[in-house]
Design a protein that fits this description.
alpha/beta, six-stranded parallel β-sheet, 41% helix
Length: 237
């Protein structure tokens, strides 16, 4: 569908490159975005008596709360939202976490940037690409994303950012991509979007943005009608 051009060749014809963050530029240090090292530390063996299905149902309930209240204006409000999330998880799985423990987990998830790690080639790739393209972010995320990107030394490479928490909606809602296009001031045909989700890429493609699947996370290494890369280094040849 998108020919046999390499990622580097494709980018030569574009002016703007939009990046997702999770599993595109960074990944969770614990292996899970919400079940952090602090979460596992305070929960101990509390999850051992529950099946994966039970845990998933609890997470879905917590995620539903976060989704319903996703329009978040600042990092302190994000922290309060996560308190509710972890209280739901504790209740649904009978973890018996105290209020102080729930707050400690929520605080860590919000403010501890050691929970996030950048892919090793990301900073070098952004440094090189920033000399020939304008770079942006389109991410389903929270206000703490600014701290995350800064702590990884990546924030200064981006000229414009679209965050779901400020729009109150998620990809592939077209409002996410239209916001990004408005901010960059370019036609969709002059832009590329890199994401680890086919669903999100389809939303971008519907508006004329060229999609590229990032399969750094093995779970994202699936059959794709779009160009697929497994490392950001492929963007620079």
């Amino acid at each position: 569908m998108y020919g046999k051009a390499t990622a580097a060749e494709l980018l030569r014809k574009k002016k703007v490159i939009f990046f997702d963050v999770g599993y595109t530029l960074a990944y969770p240090a614990s292996g899970d975005w919400m079940f952090t090292k602090k979460f596992y530390e305070l929960v101990g063996g509390g999850l051992d008596s529950h099946s994966p299905e039970e845990i998933q149902r609890a997470r879905e309930t917590g995620d539903a709360f976060l989704g319903k209240h996703h329009r978040v204006k600042d990092i302190d409000t994000e922290y309060e939202q996560f308190i509710h999330f972890y209280a739901i998880i504790s209740e649904k799985l009978d973890l018996h976490l105290t209020k102080d423990e729930i707050r400690a987990i929520a605080y860590d998830r919000t403010y501890n940037m050691e929970n996030y790690a950048a892919y090793p080639d990301g900073r070098e790739v952004l440094e090189i690409l920033s000399k020939s393209h304008r770079l942006g972010v389109i991410s389903d995320t929270w206000p703490s994303i600014e701290l995350q990107l800064s702590s990884m030394g990546l924030r200064d490479y981006f000229s414009f950012c679209t965050y779901s928490c400020f729009l109150g909606t998620f990809k592939p809602d077209k409002r996410m991509y239209l916001d990004a296009l408005t901010k960059c001031g370019c036609s969709a045909k002059d832009t590329v979007f890199l994401d680890d989700s086919l669903r999100n890429l389809e939303g971008a493609a519907r508006l004329g943005i060229t999609p590229v699947l990032v399969a750094a996370n093995p779970a994202s290494d699936v059959a794709s009608p779009y160009l697929k890369i497994r490392s950001l280094s492929e963007l620079i040849g």
